Amino acid sequence: xxxxxxELKNVCVQCADEVGKYFKKKIYLDSTVLRQCYESAVxxxxxxxxxxxxxxxxxxxxxxFWLVKLKPFLFSDTIVEKxxxxxxxxxxxxxxxxxxxxxxxxEIFLNEFLALLIGKILILRGYIDIKKKLVRALAxxxxxxxxxxxxxxxxxxxxxxxxxxxPELTDSFRDHNYSSRGLATMMMCxxxxxxxxxIQSR
Length: 202
Fold this sequence. Notes:
Elements lengths: L4 H19 L3 E3 L1 H17 L8 H15 L2 E3 L3 H16 L3 H42 L5 H31 L4 H12 L11
Helix pairs in contact: 1-5, 2-3, 3-5, 3-7, 5-6
């Protein structure tokens, strides 16, 4: 499954809108930084990929990594934040690190959360395509009904497994104890069904 920049941007915009509604705050997406995320992911997925075609799990994982790394999402200013900005020059003389800590605290959580959400959506979209191929393969009698049922059961289990990994992932993001390849490997171990690189007759 190929993921183009426009598709990635559309998913990012939709997710930002939904998360913004939840937090009751407008989320701004920097398209220039998002473009850098996309281009960096294309480079790293090929550099850190495996022999042959990079499957949709690895591709989505590299997007996740660069979304966290480059942070294209920002909360837009609220009235309270604007008042705080007015006072910030004075307050910064008391605590010179305040501005950096304030920015980091707001951005890290937001970009972590959205990266995980966007990555999950992209990975599951890839499985929609795989399921369509499995259904066609079943109709052509290239696989058995049990193969399709096994795929659906394993995917449902993998979704639950991913939810359980979220605390570990966010801790790794905060501590910067991760890499694009490491994240891709973790997502492969979490979501792998055996049908990612094609369907063999059974």
